[in-house]
């Protein structure tokens, strides 16, 4: 009997914003080398159910879409599947056309069939010419009456390599409403429930999920599959490590799917990840993509890597970043047809085979940031790869309205990046890691972000303390970082109506209506830094001297190379909740610049010794036994 790899699905919430992820329009044209839709026959009102959709008489709709095309290149490269079968059940007159693409995005017609009345059409599609990229998909063309797709699936006759079930690991801190929503979605999907062994909900907050409205109903459906674990707040790495530990002791589980808490979950994605893992030739980490929860057709990134020299994460090329499927769907995006390889996948949604966890250990105990990237690199070093699989995704709260490089998380950004570099960089002295990190500190200092720089300094000191303190400090690092804010007045947010809100002498800076072109790079950046550092060093003003800000900037207009020309400015908070007052302080600037440079030099000079210490300690600090001691508070 065929095994279903991927169901054809549609959004039942009647949200027109997400429709481009499930169906494409018929006709596009090029205007100034950009695709522009001139006909839109896919309409949200034609979605009849989770499995069915209507194509109006005389219209044509393509399902060359993110969730309904089949990513053939990934299945050929990583799995034992050599042929898939597309089965479509239709009602009414029309034509089904099956297409494929190559790695350059060139569309090729594969087969077609005319249908009428109640019909089931099957297409046997080989996976043998997709080594560098390519997809399969189908179009529906309605004749003189409506054509209804009643259901569709992509399946295989191949035998899976693994047959075990899936466990889900969710970590939350005070987001019980999101968690209950995810549990409800899972409970409403019988096929997914059949494939799940356990759901580990690790609650580390003070607002308990068990007290949220709707929890009892969802828990009643999930029954013994759901296990709520309440523990102290030891961050994302601590919560996900707990799910890993529990998975290692679950006999029927072969895979663990990690899920963040502030998400909306496309449950079909979990089934696809599970099947991909079951059919993979060797164990692979299967990552899910992240769409913006507040701007749903926008993708965060397709395949992320850690660039070796700066040792910094990001998309493998810039065009992936925040791709908008309203403007360019699969057929209009040639790079999307190439098979892209990843170094790691974010733990907003990431499936890890139990065999890999047993082999390389649990998460690094770093609270938050870089735990997912480090794990992907650790797995790669052990011979396991990460596949960010198209068609596997969820919606996550975006970072657009956050700036975690300037709040308490700045400590973890700096410390954890350096630790990951010590563990995995193959460049002498970490390549350009410390130079790049130092430039980030200088940028913060010139922008009067002294709190963030202080936390970077604290992070470097923590690196020098060595790996033995990672577990011991796990529950203390975040409170300590937040407590530091009391000494830095720029962390205070002035909200509308506050009586002490400062007003800028010069009013508000004009909004930037076009992308700036004066971004300093190369020689210009060197000249900018050489000019601004002495200016800030010589300035005699302090925070206490500032009477009124010079200008008010919107957050988006507060460009890092413009703010240094001021000694006092008001800048909008990233989340739009109010304003923050940045003021030059000579004593803080001088002290932090000295400390940042001295610590960076010390780490670089001792790089080889530190790298040897961290690498020797890695098996111990990521071991099940050591994590159990942390869970138990020992």
Could you please describe the fold and organization of this structure?
The model has no long low-confidence stretch (mean pLDDT 93). The longest helix has 20 residues, at 586-605. Helix 8 packs parallel to helix 9 and helix 9 crosses helix 16 (607-621). This protein is globular. With 634 residues, it is α+β, with helices and mostly antiparallel strands. The protein has 3 domains: 3-156, Alpha-Beta Complex (Spore Coat Polysaccharide Biosynthesis Protein SpsA, Chain A), CATH 3.90.550.60; 165-303 and 341-396, Spore Coat Polysaccharide Biosynthesis Protein SpsA, Chain A (Alpha-Beta Complex), CATH 3.90.550; 410-603, no CATH class. The strands form 6 sheets. Strands 12, 13, 14, 15, 16, 17, 18, 21, 22 and 23 form a 10-stranded mixed sheet that branches. Helix content is 31%, strand content 25%.
């Amino acid at each position: 009997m065929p095994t279903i790899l991927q169901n054809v699905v549609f959004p039942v919430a009647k949200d027109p914003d997400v429709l481009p992820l499930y169906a494409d329009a018929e006709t596009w044209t090029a205007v100034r080398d950009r695709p522009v839709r001139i006909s839109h026959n896919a309409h949200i009102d034609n979605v009849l159910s989770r499995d069915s959709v209507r194509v109006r008489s005389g219209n044509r709709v393509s399902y060359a879409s993110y969730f309904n095309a089949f990513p053939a290149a990934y299945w050929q490269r990583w799995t034992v599947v050599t042929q898939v079968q597309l089965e479509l059940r239709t009602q009414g007159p029309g034509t089904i056309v099956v297409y494929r693409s190559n790695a350059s995005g060139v569309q090729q017609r594969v087969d077609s069939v005319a249908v009428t009345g109640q019909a089931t059409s099957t297409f046997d599609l080989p996976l043998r010419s997709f080594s560098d990229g390519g997809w399969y998909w189908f179009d529906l063309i309605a004749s003189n009456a409506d054509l209804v797709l009643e259901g569709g699936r992509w399946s295989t006759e191949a035998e899976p390599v693994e047959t075990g079930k899936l466990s889900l690991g969710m970590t939350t801190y005070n987001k019980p409403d999101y968690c209950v929503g995810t549990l409800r979605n899972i409970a409403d999907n019988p096929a997914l429930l059949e494939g799940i062994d356990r759901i580990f909900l690790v609650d580390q907050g003070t607002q308990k999920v068990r007290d949220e409205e709707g929890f009892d109903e969802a828990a009643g459906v999930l029954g013994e599959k759901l296990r709520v674990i309440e523990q102290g707040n030891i961050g994302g790495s601590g919560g996900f490590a707990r799910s890993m530990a529990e998975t290692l002791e679950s006999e029927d589980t072969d895979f663990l799917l990690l899920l963040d808490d502030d998400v909306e979950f496309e449950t079909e994605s979990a089934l696809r990840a599970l099947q991909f893992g079951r059919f993979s030739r060797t164990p692979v980490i299967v990552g899910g993509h992240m769409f913006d929860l507040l701007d749903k057709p926008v993708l965060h990134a397709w395949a992320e890597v850690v660039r070796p020299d700066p040792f910094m994460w990001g998309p493998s090329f810039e065009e992936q970043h925040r791709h908008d499927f309203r403007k360019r769907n699969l057929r209009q995006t040639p790079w999307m047809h190439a098979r892209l390889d990843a170094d790691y996948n974010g733990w907003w949604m990431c499936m890890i085979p139990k065999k890999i966890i047993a082999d390389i250990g649990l998460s690094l105990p770093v609270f938050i940031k870089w735990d997912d990237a480090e794990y992907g690199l650790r797995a790669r070093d052990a011979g396991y790869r990460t596949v960010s699989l198209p068609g596997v995704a969820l919606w996550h709260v975006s970072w657009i309205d956050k700036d975690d490089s300037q709040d308490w998380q700045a400590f973890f950004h700096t410390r954890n990046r350096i630790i990951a570099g010590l563990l995995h960089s193959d460049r002498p002295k970490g390549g350009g890691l410390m130079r790049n990190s130092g430039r980030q500190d200088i940028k913060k200092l010139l922008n009067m972000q002294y709190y963030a720089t202080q936390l970077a300094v604290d992070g470097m000191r923590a690196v020098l303390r060595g790996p033995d303190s990672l577990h011991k400090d796990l529950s203390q690092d975040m409170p300590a970082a937040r407590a530091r804010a009391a000494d830095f007045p720029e962390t205070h947010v002035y909200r509308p109506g506050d009586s002490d809100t400062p007003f800028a002498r010069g009013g508000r800076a004009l909004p930037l209506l076009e992308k700036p072109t004066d971004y300093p790079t190369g020689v210009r950046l060197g000249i900018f830094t050489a000019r601004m550092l002495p200016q800030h060093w010589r300035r005699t003003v302090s925070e206490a001297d500032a009477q009124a800000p010079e200008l008010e900037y919107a957050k988006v207009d507060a460009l890092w190379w413009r703010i240094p020309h001021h000694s006092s400015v008001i800048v909008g908070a990233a989340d739009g909740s109010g304003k923050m007052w940045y003021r030059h302080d000579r004593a803080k600037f001088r002290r932090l610049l000295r400390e940042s440079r001295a610590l960076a030099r010390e780490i670089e000079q001792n790089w080889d010794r530190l790298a040897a210490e961290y690498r020797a300690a890695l098996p111990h600090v990521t071991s099940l036994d050591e994590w159990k001691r942390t869970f138990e508070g020992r």
